[in-house]
């Protein structure tokens, strides 16, 4: 299924990364290439971009989209946690790095991998199909205490115990196979936390984070990213939930190699949120590699 993806905070990213002709940049979450395209355009005629994306189909679509800039970019099907090692091996340092965390509209609506609680799909949730554990494995195999811990640690779900109990009871009767099966189990167990939010929102978030080891990848990346930034080079990270945002905020503040440029996170304008509701929870933080 063909699904587009509207990139968020594009103007703000270009400004905060101070993208300029001839600069070298890295995009750790290429997705369908929206930000990468904007960076290549703004760094014309001779800027260069290293792109990382671990979902094969997204990368394929991005490659097509970026073809007008042939010769000015290199794409890797790789985890962004490996970006520092890969670029260091090539002897590369860049002026700016972007991470745009979270799900793309393609993964949510077009991948068929069970990321959405509104669609009947196999409960998979791997962003990279080379990963070994799926969401189906976790919901069917984890013990009750492990499920509670997963929902608390990765979903900050206050009703973790109730939901975990409902999952354990349901799977006693039948293995849980699809996204809608799981959504219905959670719907029966708890009410929505707030109006307009599906009761399974945090359950799906927690499973996705666990399957893709999202927090571990971000932590690993943050510990090494300053090494591949030129002095004065900038690191811009867009996050969509507080677990990630807190990690980024703390890492920026505590890393002596970095100087924080955004005391408060940059938020999308009302106009952007109206045009693109996915932007609603986006927060951009930026730090600069110290010059000495
Ligand atoms: C919000 S989307 C990025 C959208 C992109 N900025 C655009 O304009 O199209 C996040 C993307 O990052 C990818 N991703 C998430 N974690 C990753 C990781 N650890 N390594 C590589 N790619 C990752 C996902 O597969 C997804 O395509």
Give an account of the 3D structure.
- It is a single chain.
- This protein has 292 residues and is an alpha/beta fold.
- It has 2 domains: 10-106 and 214-289, 3-Layer(aba) Sandwich (Rossmann fold); 132-211, DNA polymerase, domain 1, CATH 1.10.150.
- Helices cover 42% and strands 14% of the residues.
- The protein contains 13 helices and 7 strands.
- The chain has helices spanning 10-16, 34-42, 56-65, 83-89, 105-110, 135-141, 144-155, 160-173, 179-189, 201-211, 214-224, 242-254, 270-275, and strands at 24-27, 48-52, 73-76, 94-100, 229-239, 258-260, 283-289.
- It has a 7-stranded mixed beta sheet, with helices on both faces.
- Helix 7 (144-155) crosses helix 8, helix 7 (144-155) crosses helix 10 and helix 11 packs parallel to helix 12 (242-254).
- It binds S-adenosylmethionine.
- S-adenosylmethionine is lined by residues 5, 7, 29, 31-35, 52-55, 58, 79-81, 100, 102-104, 107, 127, 217.
- S-adenosylmethionine binds next to helix 2.
- Gyration radius (Cα, Å) is 20 Å
Task: Could you tell me the CATH topology label of the largest domain.
Answer: Rossmann fold
Based on secondary structure, the structural category is alpha/beta
Overall CATH architecture of the largest domain: 3-Layer(aba) Sandwich
Principal-axis shape: globular
Note the main sheet. Answer: 7 strands, mixed
Which percent range describes the beta-strand content?
Answer: 5-15%
Order of adjacent strands in the largest pleated sheet: 3-2-1-4-5-7-6
Query: What's the mean pLDDT score?
Result: 96
CATH class of the largest domain: Alpha Beta
Fourth CATH level, the homologous superfamily of the largest domain: Vaccinia Virus protein VP39
């Amino acid at each position: 299924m063909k699904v587009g993806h509207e990139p968020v905070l594009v103007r703000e990213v270009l400004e905060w990364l101070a993208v300029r002709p001839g600069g070298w940049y890295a995009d750790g979450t290429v997705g369908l290439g929206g930000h990468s395209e904007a960076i290549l355009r703004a760094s014309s005629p001779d800027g260069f971009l290293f792109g990382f994306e671990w979902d094969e189909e997204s990368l394929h679509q991005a490659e097509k989209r970026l073809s007008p800039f042939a010769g000015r970019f290199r794409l890797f099907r790789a985890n962004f946690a490996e970006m520092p090692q890969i670029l260091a091996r090539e002897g590369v340092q860049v002026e700016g790095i972007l991470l745009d965390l979270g799900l793309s509209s393609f993964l949510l609506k077009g991948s068929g991998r069970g990321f959405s609680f509104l669609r009947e799909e196999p409960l998979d949730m791997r962003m990279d199909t080379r990963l070994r554990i799926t969401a189906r494995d976790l919901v069917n195999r984890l013990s009750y205490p492990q499920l509670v811990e997963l929902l608390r640690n990765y979903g900050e779900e206050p009703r973790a115990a109730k939901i975990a109990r409902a999952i354990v009871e349901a799977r006693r009767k039948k293995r849980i196979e699809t996204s809608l099966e799981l959504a219905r189990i959670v719907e029966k167990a708890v009410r929505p936390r707030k109006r307009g939010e599906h009761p399974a929102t945090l359950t799906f978030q927690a499973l996705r984070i666990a399957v893709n080891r999202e927090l571990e990848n971000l932590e690993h990346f943050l510990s090494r990213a300053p090494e591949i930034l030129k002095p004065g080079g900038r690191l811009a990270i867009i996050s969509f939930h507080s677990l990630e945002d807190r990690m980024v905020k703390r890492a920026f503040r505590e890393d002596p190699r970095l100087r924080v440029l955004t005391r408060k996170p940059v938020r999308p304008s009302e106009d952007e949120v109206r045009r693109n509701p996915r932007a609603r929870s986006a927060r951009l933080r930026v730090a600069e590699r110290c010059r000495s």
